[in-house]
Amino acid sequence: MWVKEVRLTDFRSYATAEVRLEQGVTTFVGANGQGKTNLVEAIGYTATLGSHRVATDAPLVRVGAERAVVSLLAVKDGREALIELEINPGKANRARLNRSSSVRPKDVLGIVHSVMFAPEDLALVKGDPAERRRFLDDLLIQRSPRMLGVKSDYERIVKQRNALLKSAGVGRRGSAAEVERTIEVWDTQLVDVGSEIVTARIALVADLHPHVVDAYARISTADGDQGMDLAYSSIAVPAAGYVPDREAWRESLISAIVARRKDELDRGVTLVGPHRDDLVLSLGSTPAKGYASHGESWSIALSLRLASLEVLRNDGDDPVLILDDVFAELDTARRRHLTEQVAGTTQVLITAAVPEDVPQELGGRQIRVSRGVVEHD
Question: Which CATH architecture has domain 120-316?
Fold first, then answer.
């Protein structure tokens, strides 16, 4: 699939913007702070209903505006699809598909697939586990849009369960027996939904693994570089290991919850579940976090994104690859290997401060962005 046109209204720095795109490579060129990333961010938002830069929708709306609208024309299997998303901070977002009557925003998921590599991706290596969980979940949602609803359900359950644990811990909710019965109801819901998320994440890690290992081996060129590995880490590890069996994980989550009951009541928070898990990245036998060099961290982050590209391709769709201001951060060898890796991708969108940051081998079309004005060639 590929994106043919993007139109923005009150999105980020743009009062209005219209960008016409083509297959192949397109580079948005302009000084920092001119609005290049805002354009590609809109495409990523359409693919996942989330931004790679912020956790909430409010910053996506231009200052002084009440709402933002992202309109995107995609071509998939030779057919055009017009997606319109209305972003309403503090209210329900709205969507339209092919100018029809309103549909739910989640109904447009799966039409556009994208993989974005950006400077923020260093947080996948150096940041908190939440960054790595988000990486897995965003990719899961693209592969299986229904997982957005599953994730939302799980977040609601954890919020309600935390409120109960907090009140029970200070003795404000009836007898101990009543508290136990109420908590057990939320336990059941948590493990039912949580086991689905964990199972899906583990299966995804298994799919990513060979592509991550291969991509890192190709990208990392420094003498003495060790091989990269990744594994899913959970407080509720089944005795049989990381077998993606939902029932096994359900039982493991139940056991772990019972074992941590006192700690949860003392602290007033849910300590067991997929919201506490992590994706462990390593170089050889050494954890990447805290030990990987700056160059190694870039290679790991890039390998994760390139592996995502391959996983989505294997699902039958070539996603839009977005490289947001990354070539300036890579040395000559890593630039060359990245260029080789992206060859043949249906659509590649690049942002760069100057044309010289982009390898000449990629060629393609250039679009200048200056002070929020998009200048087509």
Answer: Up-down Bundle (1.20)
- 14, 10, 13: which is closest to 65 by C-alpha? 10
Cβ atoms of 186 and 229 within 8 Å: the answer is no
Is pTM beyond 0.70 here? yes
pLDDT tens column, 49-91 = 999 899 899 999 999 999 999 999 999 888 999 999 999 998 9
CA dihedral (139, 316, 21, 32) in degrees, to 10, reads 30
Contact 23, 361 (CB under 8 A): no
The pair phi, psi for residue 248, each rounded to 5°, is: -65, -40
Strands 79-87 and 278-283: unpaired
Domain spans of the chain, in order of start: 1-113+317-377, 120-316
Burial class, 35, CB count within 10 angstroms (exposed 0-12 / middle 13-18 / buried 19+): buried
20 with 75: CB under 8 angstroms?
Answer: no
* Fold matches, 1-113+317-377 and 120-316: no
